[in-house]
Amino acid sequence: MNEPGKIEIEEVTAVAAPPKARVDLDDVGHKPDYLEGFLAQKPAAAGAAEPGGDLYEGVIDALKEIYDPEIPVNIYELGLIYGVDVTPDSHVVVTMTLTTPHCPVAESMPGEVELRVGAVPGVGSAEVNLVWDPPWDPAKMSDEAKLELGML
After folding, report:
1. Could you give the CA distance from residue 71 to residue 61 in angstroms, rounded to a whole number?
2. Region 69-93 average pLDDT
3. Which DSSP letter does residue 129 get?
4. Which residue has the higher pLDDT, 52 or 141?
5. Rounded CA gap, 22 and 10, in Å?
6. Is the pTM of this model over 0.90?
7. DSSP readout, 42-110?
8. d(Cα 131, Cα 15) in Å, to the nearest integer?
9. Buried residues in 107-146 as b, exposed as e (16+ CB within 10 A)
10. CA distances (Å), origin 40, targets 26, 45, 46, 133
C-alpha cells in the first residue's frame, strides 16, 4: 500500500539487455568497406608552378643555396623570402626582405637572387621585389635556422 509522502523501493537483481540495432548493409546499398573508394584515390599532381611542382621547388632549392654573408644560414630558412610566385609562362617573382635596411648586401643580394632564380631550368624570367614591410624579425626563421644559430 502506498502511503502519502512515502516512497516505495523495489530491488532489482537483473535487467534484460536492450535489443541491438542491426542494419543489413545490402538493404541500404552500402558496402561494408567504407574506405574502399577513398583509399583508391591518388593525390592530384601539383602543377610545375605550384608548391610541390618541379619549377617551384627548383626555385626554392636555388634560394636555399644563397647564404647571408653575416649569418651562416640560407636566406630561405632565415625567413627573408616572403613569397615566390610563378606565372603560367614561367615568370618568377620573388618577394623578399633583408635583416635590416642597412644590411651591407642590400644592393647586391636582390641581384644575386634574381640571377640564381633566373638560372633555374624552366624559368623564363625572374624578378625580385625587395620590401621592408613587414620588417624581418627572428621569429620568421625556420626551426632549422634557429637550431643552427643555437636559438633552440
Report:
1. 19
2. 91
3. E
4. 141
5. 33
6. no
7. PPPPPPTTSTTSHHHHHHHHHHTT-B-SSSSSBTTTTT-EEEEEE-TT-EEEEEE--S-TT-TTTTTHH
8. 74
9. eebbeebbebbbebeebeebebebeeeeebeeebbeeebb
10. 22, 15, 18, 46
Angle at 80 between CA 102 and CA 52, to 5 degrees: 160
Q: Which residue type, as a one-letter code, is found at position 18?
A: P
At which residue does the C-alpha cell 592530384 appear? 44
- Residue showing cell 568497406: 33
Separation of alpha carbons 107 and 117, rounded Å = 17
C-beta separation of 122 from 94 below 8 A: no
Residue type at position 94: V
* Torsion-angle region of 90 (φ positive above 0: left; ψ -120 to 50: alpha; else: beta): left
